[in-house]
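Pinned message: reference record for dTDP-4-dehydrorhamnose reductase
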Amino acid sequence: MSGTAWLVTGARGQLGLDLQAALAVRGEDAVTAVGRTELDLTDEARVRSVLRGWLAAAEASGRRPVVLNAAAYTAVDAAEEHEAEALVVNGAAPGWIAEELAGHQGSTARLVHVSTDYVFDGTATRPYGVDDDPAPRTAYGRTKLAGERAVAAAGGDAVVVRTAWVYAAHGTNFLRTMLRLEQERPELTVVDDQSGSPTWTRDLAAGLVEAALAPVQGVLHATNGGATTWCGFARRIFALVGADPERVRPVDTASFPRPAPRPAYSVLDPASWTAAGLPALPAWEDSLQRCLGDMGLLAGR
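Predicted structure (tokens):
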């Protein structure tokens, strides 16, 4: 068998785009990237049909099949009103994918499924480990936990990777929102009583590819190193682009009521990741600087 056949779901999302970039350098591999148009995760028959066709093509090419599942219903607040739909996309569909891979009769097919810090209740005072009990407080968290359990129940070669506070140079995310607001407002308020680890999709994508190729199963945690608050994140963005960080004013969560409660503490312990022999993701401040540098936005450059 020569090389790997990759299937990237959620291909037009911020992580999906960086997964494709990470795989583009792997010349002997074959990469198939699908978005909602090609793979409607609310349609079980369609999901299974697409997976079977792709698995047959991978087998015919002599490559090992690996799915990187970056597709999800990520509208956290909307999920509170549309939990049934979110449960299909986040809960049932990963199970369908995992079942097709586990039932494949050719070479061992592997799944890397991306999950979230929202499976925890956010009340911890130390980083969450993979063995801590999930206790989601939102529809999004409940549906993502259902997906984790569906993947495990399928019994195939799979790894679930939880991450948090993901941002990218493209798409809709906290970094790009702060960059826009820095241009539009003389001052802004940002929550300062929620803690997490800002995680660059480029680092996460590279890590997911590493995890896919490593002999590890179960659940892992992967974020950039260190932790801050949303306010601290915003102030660092401002400072790096040459804006006054004091323009970002701290407020508490109660100042921004949302349909879905945000976790007060989202820091994930990376011990499971490094114990699996995977290289630690860089510190969040370093990755943010590299991201802004790639965007051509660093002050003085």
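Pinned by admin. Summary line: The chain has a mean pLDDT of 97.
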